[in-house]
Specification:
Layout lengths: L18 E9 L3 H18 L5 E10 L2 E8 L2 H8 L4 H10 L4 E9 L4 E6 L23 H4 L18
Length: 165
């Protein structure tokens, strides 16, 4: 006779503004392996500092050339503030100026409503981009706040849109 399945759920009522973000890095060329390994170590070290609003970091491996992470944040404001500080600021600036033989992506899911994703130098389709039309990340779609259609002024971007043209 088989045992009964122990089925559980979670009470997220203490996290009304919870944000979950998946990030991934895919190796596209040989030099991308170095960037992949370097960023992996640095991101793990950053997660261990537990920035304000940070709840959990989990590493994910999609294939031998594609890894990533899932992070849980108390709210969008905490995540957004962290992205404007070092070391994230330096990583993002580096990736946007030269992808270093990698492709980067993130997809964000917000308890308050809204989802968004961005895909930089990613080969092929992934996530939302497999079923929703892909558009250049320009203008309102340049930053996460605009893609989420959130009110308020966004902090200055790590790299200005005009610097990427």
């Amino acid at each position: 006779m088989s045992a009964r399945v122990r089925r559980e759920t979670v009470d997220l009522s203490a996290y009304p503004d919870l944000v979950v973000i998946y990030r991934g890095l895919r190796i596209r060329r040989a030099r991308g392996l170095l960037r992949f390994l370097k960023l992996g170590r640095e991101i793990q070290a950053s997660a261990e500092t537990a920035p304000d609003g940070f709840l959990l970091h989990e590493n994910l491996f999609f294939s031998p050339i594609h890894g990533g992470m899932r992070q849980y944040w108390r709210d969008s404001a905490s995540l957004e503030a962290w992205t404007r500080t070092l070391p994230h600021q330096a990583w993002w600036r580096e990736v946007l100026r030269d992808s270093g033989g990698t492709g980067f992506w993130h997809e964000l899911y917000s308890m308050r409503g809204g989802m968004e994703g961005v895909y930089d130098d990613m080969p092929g389709q992934l996530g939302f981009g497999t079923f929703a039309p892909r558009e250049p990340a320009r203008g309102r779609l340049f930053g996460a706040r605009g893609r989420l259609a959130r009110d308020g002024d966004a902090p200055a971007p790590v790299v200005a849109e005009h610097d990427l043209a």
